[in-house]
Fold Phage terminase large subunit family protein.
Amino acid sequence: MTSIKTLPAHATATTPPPETRQKAMLFCPSCGHESPVTGDWDVEQTDGERTYSCPWCHTVISSRPDEN
């Protein structure tokens, strides 16, 4: 049986993962903006729902029930 090791496109065997990237990151599929969940996203709370939008292009990134 052959084992396969996969790495991100920008990684090499000697390159450590980026130290500045946090685990809980959101990425905008429209413009490529990325920031932590607690970062600069526009957050709107309505009717028990929390919506995260990109501050650059205003694309809705995530919409989920409010946890409060």
